[in-house]
Amino acid sequence: MLHNIKELYGHKLAASDGDIGHVQDFYFDDQTWVIRYLVADTGSWLTGRQVLVTPHAFGEWDRQEKTLQVKLSKKQIENSPSIDTHQPVSRQYEEEYYRYYGWPTYWNGDAMWGPGGYPLANPTAPVQGGVLPKHHHRAEKHLRSAHAVTGYQIQTAEGAIGTVSGFMVDDRSWAIGELAVDAGHWYAGKEVLIPTGKVERISYEDSAVFVSLTKADIQHTAEHHVAKSGA
Question: Following CA atoms 180, 184, 189, 193 in sequence, which dihedral angle do they give, to the nearest 10 degrees?
Fold first, then answer.
């Protein structure tokens, strides 16, 4: 089932031995369309540090209590490799990070999470769904802030049709299946869902997401329905 990750912003993060802060942002890969890290706001606990939590450590998401369980201790997080708040996530940092926690690296293997399709301690365990789609994990980084991309214009060949309002993710694999788009006055204030497979590119210079859909494709979709070519 897909959920909009904006629902998680501000949720409490509960480690095995106490709260560690709240959800501030997510970093996603704009090539393979999967959430790689949650960015935690730790308040005054670890001032000046950016704390990243991979989905490997995600536990139960309690929507009523607005809490995401993290399967780590506060000491583990405190002693984890530090990354400067203003620096991008490098592969060198990721290697240190995964080595520290002992998780399998997602770039070693051709599945979404390396050896398997889910962020598991044993990613080669059988999963539902049959043959897993293959992923090409590039050496260069393509991690982007979900919070920063929210608000980007959606550009068709005929012009803008709205802005990114959220990311619809599978809360098991943490793959992004669709972009939630606020169509604004152009489409009576409705929200439509655009499959990430229809995204041609993201222009960070122009703050825009270019899609292979026409305005007619989107007009023919009902509110909250997924836009398709030639609908």
Answer: -20
Specify the pairing of strand 159-170 against strand 2-4: antiparallel
Phi-psi region at 50: left, alpha or beta (left = phi > 0; alpha = psi -120 to 50): beta
Identify the CATH assignment for 1-145 out of 3.90.420.10, 3.90.50.10, 3.40.50.2000, 3.40.50.970: 3.90.50.10
Per-residue pLDDT of the chain (231 residues; tens, 9 = 90+): 789 999 999 999 999 999 999 999 999 999 899 999 999 999 889 987 889 999 999 999 999 999 999 999 999 999 999 887 667 888 899 999 999 999 999 998 888 998 888 997 654 444 444 444 565 565 556 799 999 999 999 999 889 989 999 999 999 999 999 999 998 776 766 788 999 999 999 999 999 999 999 888 887 764 446 766 655
Query: What's the rounded Cα separation, in Å, for the pair 208 and 149?
Result: 8
67-77: burial string, b at 16+ Cβ within 10 Å, e else: bbbbebebebb
**Dist CA 230 CA 43 (whole Å):** 48
Other CB atoms within 10 Å distance of the CB of residue 105: 16
CATH number, domain 150-219: 2.30.30.240
Report the Cα 5 to chain-centroid distance in Å: 8
User: What is the C-alpha to C-alpha distance for residues 188 and 147, in angstroms, rounded to an integer?
Assistant: 25
Residue 215: other Cβ atoms inside 10 A: 15
Judging by DSSP bridges, how do beta strands 12-15 and 67-70 pair with one another? parallel
